[in-house]
Prior knowledge:
Elements: H1 19-34, H2 42-49, H3 55-68, E1 71-75, H4 83-87, E2 91-95, H5 97-114, H6 121-139, H7 147-180, H8 186-219, H9 223-238, H10 250-278, H11 288-314, H12 320-332, H13 337-348, H14 360-369, H15 387-392, H16 408-432, E3 438-439, H17 448-464, E4 471-475, E5 481-487, E6 493-498, E7 501-506, E8 508-514, H18 515-522
Antiparallel strand pairs: 1-2, 3-8, 4-5, 5-8, 6-7
Helix pairs in contact: 2-3, 6-7, 6-8, 7-9, 7-11, 8-11, 9-10, 16-17
Amino acid sequence: MNSDQPPVQPFAHLSAPNAELYRDVLVVFVHARDRFIVHMRPEDVAVELGHSGAPETVAAALEQLVGWGNLRSDPDTGRVTTVADFHRARYLYQLTAAGQAAEEALAVYDEALGRRGALQSVALEDIANQLRALVALARAEVADIDPAKVHLLLLGLVERFSGLADNAQAFMASLRRVIDFSDGDVEAFVAYKQRLIDYINRFIADLANRGAEIAALLDEPAPEAVERLLRLVVEREARDLVPEVAEIPDANRDAYEAALSDTLTIWLNRWRGLREWFVSADSQHPSQARLLRSAAVTAITQLIDTVATLNERRSGRSDRSADFRALARWFAEAPDDAAAHRLWRSAFGLTPARHLTVTAETVQRWEKVEPPPGLPWAEAPGVEISPQLRRTGTYERRGQPARVADRAEARRMLAEQAARERQQVAAARARLATGGPVLLSQVDVLDTRVFRLFLGLLGDALSARQPGAAEVETTTGDGTMLIRLTAVADARDVEIPTEDGVLRGPEHILEIIDLMGAALVGAPA
């Protein structure tokens, strides 16, 4: 190699300032080669590029590509008619071997990068058909086997299997990108979702059926029969590389046998890869087909979860991060520390300590006074505790264990309290039952307990309403109440007075049914 010759840099044009122009020029040469055109003149390249008005730009680009080793320039003597034409620099350009290799590498890279892949159910059928034919040949005697037929079957099997594996890998990668970037066009993603799920489901069914058949076909021939077929293929391929075995000198016979052994190893490795793709070694090493089936099922679950999340966002629900951002904004807008403290207690459910045991007299005093939640502890009624707890931090006393306390009175108090709460809830349900469709503005003044139940009903109805729907019907989680909510066209905002303030919102037609009350009325005496 001449040390004065500049090094070949066929990829240098990709990072050069005029990379786009260089790529366009090289693409012109690639297309010309596809048309069996070897040499091109600068004006021909300019015409193909549409830059016929700036031939000097094209000529400079061609010279630069020659310097990098992508093109080769030869003197253009075909148009020399005078001595002046002979002294004028005229060249023909063609792709060099390095330039052609670089273009092929870039084409493979672009194809792999842009491949979306597919789940090829047809390839599974073709693989099964080719394996059936191979199994039939494996049962025959060696003298009855046509090596050409075996060779063609194995070449087709390798081609279909390679396409199946590569396309499946590319499809799962592209599906992951679809799920990750589902926020881009929500409407298109939701419309595309069902077709995609149906497509994956069909492939999962085909893979389960055809995969089991292919695994059984791969297990049928003995390893010795498979190796016998592969040796026929290897010997047939060797005929194109070396003369007849009888004509090989003894000195080269070892090299010939080594080449056969290497080629056989390649084919055995291909068969092993095909087998491991469909046949599981054990529970700890599942086949690639089983892993692909599991990944497809997981992808369907992720698609459904993603669509559910998008529907929740479109229906007005907020996620936890949005709730915390709204809470942070409320804290920032709090007028003073007292308001911030009230917001903190309301948001995070801070309540008085519940781990102290108090007497019935203390409970009665609390029921009489009923201190508000915002009352400071220093101003609240005192809590009588045991001196033992104050002195030692525990109720336990040394000596004999305390007698088992009689909890009958406590259980009676709890039962009475539960009965009162049930009555209050039943009264609230009866208070909210509308007896038929009414306007939201016709709802009377609500006390605190009824208002909380009313807000829960409205929240259930608004959460269940589909985007764009004007009417919704749903029941509470415990199945005690049913609510129908219908939007009113051109609704105005209305106000509902409550003991805690005023509820404002757009007008709706409302119907609330107390299912427990209806069941009691309809029950036989």
